[in-house]
Structure formats: C-alpha cells, structure tokens
Amino acid sequence: MSEAAAVLHQEVQTAESPLTPESWGKLGMWVFLAGDAMSFGGLLAGYGALRASSPDWPNPLQTLGIGLTAFMTFLLICSSVTMVKALSAVKHGDQVRFRIFLLLTVIGGTTFLTLQAHEWGHLTHEGMTMSSNPWGAALFGTTFFILTGFHGCHVFGGVVYLSCVLLSGLRGRYSADNYSPVEIVGLYWHFVDLVWILVFTFVYLVGAGS
Amino acid sequence: MATAHTSHEEPNYMNIFWALTVLTLLEIGAVYLPTTKLVVGFLLVALAVTKAALVALYFMHLKFERPTLGIIALTPMIICVFLIFMLLPDLTAHNKLHTPSAKSAASETAHSP
Predict the structure, then answer these.
(1) How many angstroms separate the CA of residue B113 from the nearest CA in chain A?
(2) Are residues B19 and B36 in the same domain?
(3) Prediction ipTM score
(4) Once rounded to an integer, what is the mean pLDDT over residues A184-194?
C-alpha cells in the first residue's frame, strides 16, 4: 500500500459521522426507521381513507374492545422503560442490571405477541377474516389484520433482535465503553412502541365513542 | 466495533413512564366523553402525538441529538401528512357520489328514456 493510500485509509477509518459521532450503525438505524415510518404512515393513511369512505364502518369499542389492547399498550410502554434502563445500566457498567432489564424487555415483547395472538384468535372465532366480518364494512377486517399484523411482525423481529443482543450481552460483549449495539436495538424497540401508540389510537379509539 | 463517546444528562425515565401511563388513561377516558366524535377524534390524535413525541424525544434521545437527525425523523411525518391531504379530494369525490341525493339522481338518469 502506498503512503498516500495508507493515509487515506487511516482517514476513512477515523472519520466520524457528522450526525451520530458514536457510531455509523446508529445513523443507519435512524435512516431505516425513517423509511419504515413511511411504510406505517402509508398504511395508516390508506386505513383512514378507506374508513372515511365506508359509511358502515363498525364501532371498534363494540367489536374489538379496548381493555386488552390498552393493557398491551401499557406493556409496550413498560418494555420501553426497561429498555432505557438496560441501556443506562450498561453505560454505567452495571452488567447485572443491564442483563435483567434486557431480559424483561424480551419478556414484555413476547407477552405482547402472545396477547395479540389471543386477540386475533378471538376475533377470528367471532367470524372476522381478511375479507369479511359480521359487523359491517368488509375492509374493517382487512385493514385491521394488515395494520396490526405488520406491527406484530415488527414486534417479532424486535424480540429476535433483542434476544440476539441479550445473548451477546450474556457473553460479556458490551461494556461502559462499548454499548452502541444496545443503543441501536433500543432505537428500534422504542420505534415499535411509538408506532403501536398511533395504531392503538387510530384503529381502536378513534370513532369508538357512543 | 464503534464505541460510544457522546454523553448527555440522562432524563428521568420514570417521569416519562408516568406521563405516558396518564396520557393513555386520558385517551381511554376521552372515548367516553359526551361530545361529538370529531371533538373526541381531535383530542385522541393530540394525545397520541404527545405520547409519540415523548417516546421519540426522551426514550429515543432525539432531544439530545443533533437537530439534523430530528429533521430525518420528522421527514416521514411531513410526507404522511402530505399523503393524507393528497387523498382528501378522492375521499370528497367518493362521498359526493355516495350521498342519497346523488344516488337517486343517478337512478333517475338510468331509468329515463
């Protein structure tokens, strides 16, 4: 390698992202989340358009119920808190608390998925499918399953991602000097929580009044 | 492996947790308010946007990042609002076609010789 190439190589290695000096991965995750937000935004906008143009849209309070999903929302908020607590612990070099809080986050995500599967099973048993339902506009079921299913896939992906980071954490890979991967998985998990806040409001609450 | 260099004052995460919990309870309470669905809808959207902003600002630490990163995060929201406005004319046209007066006018036209 020539001297000039060696200098250039060193510069590339030490160069820092202007937006996220701590890691390129973090910037990559933000860009990915921006794209993913557009996917959810498109689905939510489409949902709003279909709902507004369907006069016989069923009342979500009477058909879906909000008790279970309100608890699921609370569960995701709790898992976001355990996630930030895990990040805070690893930043302070507290490995035990880091692992416990990350494990609690994985448990929170898994419980959410279990409850969603229960909700889907219940609604399917009542006759709600992708193409029909006993209460009104057929698109009610279509939009419900697509929106909550797309979000559920994200939760599943998040649980797998968190579990991988947890396994690496159990092997002692992260420390107070090296916690970027924990911060990056945290960004993804908080995004999943943020999206659910919007899905819960638009699918379950808006238009649910008497 | 990249290491973390930046540091900022850590927010009180439990305060954010309580705020999110209270806002969620307010949302559920708002559903039962004895007012129009439009008012309740606006209230619910305002509460949801506040909750989403709390998560982004404090849990995702957007408040402590460089402003340009905030622009990256806000861009999809701006595009989605734009998308909703783009869909509005289509919705208006659809509703006009499906109002009772429009339907009767259409059937009269169909039956006229």
Answers:
(1) 32
(2) yes
(3) 0.88
(4) 97
> Radius of gyration (Cα) for chain A, nearest Å?
21
- For the stretch A32-69, pLDDT in tens is 999 999 999 999 999 988 898 888 899 888 889 889 99
> In terms of residue numbers, what domain contains B97?
66-101
DSSP, residue by residue, chain A: --HHHHHHHHHHHH---SS-TT-HHHHHHHHHHHHHHHHHHHHHHHHHHHHHT-TTPPPHHHHT-SHHHHHHHHHHHHHHHHHHHHHHHHHTT-HHHHHHHHHHHHHHHHHHHHHHHHHHHHHHHTT--SS--SSS-THHHHHHHHHHHHHHHHHHHHHHHHHHHHHHHHTT--BTTB-HHHHHHHHHHHHHHHHHHHHIIIIIITT---
Q: Which of residues 72-101 of A touch B (CB under 8 A)?
A: 73-74, 77-78, 80-81, 83-85, 88, 91
B55 with B16, same domain: the answer is yes
pLDDT at residue B62, as a whole number = 92
Q: What percent of chain B has pLDDT over 70?
A: 75
User: Reduced to 3 states, what is the DSSP secondary structure of residue B41?
Assistant: helix
Please indicate, yes or no, whether residues B49 and B70 belong to a single structural domain of this protein.
no
Q: Is the pLDDT of residue A178 over 80?
A: yes
User: Would you tell me how many other CB atoms lie within 10 Å of the CB of residue A131?
Assistant: 10
Q: Which two tokens stand for residue A37?
A: 């937000």
Residue A159 lies in a domain: yes
Asked if A54 and B35 count as a contact pair (C-beta separation under 8 A), the reply is: no
- CB contacts of A22 in chain B (<8 Å) are 2-6
Q: Which residues of A touch B79 (CB under 8 A)?
A: 38, 41
